[in-house]
Amino acid sequence: QSTWGPPLLLVRFLRDSVKMRDSRKVLAVVSASIVFVLFYMNGVIVDRLPEQPSLPAESRVGFGGLHDRVVIEDVRPAATETSSASTSVDVGECLALWKEKWARETALVASALESDGLKPDATCLREIPASLYDEYTMNGQIEVIKWHKCQNFKQLKPAEYLPAQIEENFKRIAAKKKMYYLWDDVILYKAAELHPWEGENVAIMGSQRPNFESVCIFYKAGNCTTIDYQRIISRDPRLATMTIAEWDANPVQFDSAISVSSFEHDGLGRYGDPLMPNGDLRAVEKMQCVLKPKGRLYLAIPIGRDKLTWNMHRVYGELRLPRILDSFKLLDIIGDHQLTERLNWCNSGAHGDYQPTF
Prior knowledge:
The protein is built from 11 helices and 12 strands. By secondary structure, the protein is α/β, with parallel strands linked by helices. The chain has a 7-stranded mixed β-sheet with strand order 7-5-4-8-9-1-12. Strands 2-10-11 form a 3-stranded mixed β-sheet, with no helix packed on it. β10 and β11 form a beta hairpin. It is globular and about 75 Å long.
């Protein structure tokens, strides 16, 4: 799974061979090392990132460097600038069109669940409903791994975010140290520096702890608002919160939005959300209403070989990644030394442990 696996094994074998004073094994390791270097130089062993990954044509960019950037910019045509009122899209109309588009799939899913003897609001299921299996796996093309967890937001007490938590996070951000999401946090710091949101109204989509809220505030957003299924109580005046239901009832638009390790869960029922095979695509399309015209989405999702870890999350590869990015124009991808390997769709295992920022 790693470019460095073979050379490390050769070094270990060489060390053991020297200790055993086995000249034949030492010669074999040296020969193998020479072969490895030759293949490495010719790009045979090292997976090379394709010059044009299998993303939608309008989203393709050059991925030459290891310096990762990422941000998706909404490419809806901006309104004519004849007046301040005409420069904004009617968020209510946008939301109505989004609901209309997805109403048919919602009805089909409800009917399918009923055919399986399940209620339309079934959630937190241990098995993929038989009638929806093909939809969830893109007709069997996506591997399924079982790993069940139920964190129904309706059964949880409201979370409470305190100023002390945010101030403690500031220390880690300033030192470029990892928080709960490890390297995903560090990658987001880089995204914030490369594509600043200073002075903007920024939404944080999905949250279990005030980590990304801290990043939002630290990098000087004008306002930070967390939107989640679960009710969150903010004790910090720098952070506002609202539930998804509250946003739906009174929608407002933002200049930018941050979503880290969130949309890959949508539609799987882990958090008590309704089952929806394309719930992730549905959620990302909704961001066209959450964001103002030309708004930016900082999107971090697991990438690697396509995989569905039921009911935990999805991992996005050459099949599903182009679909989830399709609603936006891709400006950048920000990651680290693993980015090239992961964009060649290596097998990430069940965890989906690598999330660059798009």
